[in-house]
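Recap from last week: sequence in, structure out.
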Amino acid sequence: MEQPGKVGLFGAAGAAGRSIAAALSAAGRPYRVVGRSREPLDAAFGHDPLAEIVTWNPDDPASIRSAAAGLQTVIYLVGVPYDQFAAHPPLVEKTLAGVVAAHVERFILIGTVYPYGRARGNPVREDHPREPHTFKGRMRLAQENLVLAAHGRGGLSTLVLRLPDFYGPCIERSLLNGVFEGAATGKRAQIVGPVDVPHEFIYLPDVGPVVETLTRTPAAYGRWWHLAGTGTLTQREVARQAYALAGRAPKLLVAGKTMLRVLGLFNPLMRELVEMNYLMTEPLVLDDSALTKLLGPIARTSYEEGIRRCFEAARDAASASGVMQRSAAKTV
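Predicted structure tokens:
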């Protein structure tokens, strides 16, 4: 593997950005974090002397070029609201144009399983047809097609790294986060069902080291890859383990597809979850043997260890929140 150049994380303030930044920092590599507003970037990365904090306007070509200037690799993590997925293709198209203009050498898109549609059989390899039957799947497919089509343009090399659903300590956007908060506080956990179907989750802190390695692996570019979790687990089993750590029996409020439809009448996010609920009822499990062959053994956190870490983080957060509330009450 070669001598690595500087990496920029576009859309860095989310959980995946923090995982990748931690891996870059652990490797002693200076990196740039890019986002629309400075405050969340300062909060997440201001403590790290290796982090350079930059804001951008992804609708302004000059701003994109400036944010990408001097980088060898751009890792694209830019999110959009769940009810605005049509923004994904034009946003990545503008970013790619700016990246090429800035003479960036490599571009990594952190992708999802959405472009596959329903699994024709498990585990799913990279040669599985990409035939999304949902709007969100079609938007993600269009996004990654733009990334792959840019491979070889202006000296740019591109790849897509596809992940299953993720979880990790205090990651609010994880499907499992409510379980850990419920176990830590003794409250009922709100969860999207069904809860007894095996599902694949990846422990998000495991992703960063893999992406850091890919930034300095030229042979990886020009295609998409899978990064799998450690097999499958039902959400009920996650809840059983998490609540057991607190010495409690699980308490769950499960929202199935029917309840999501009803809730969607009042909550746009719940409405948007309906079309993707097939992933909860029809498992899609990734085969990442190709990536393992390229990179060698990949370190993976077991579900048991990951659940323990997530529970402990939720317990510590709940304890800190209680201390702050008591302190505020005394001041009033």
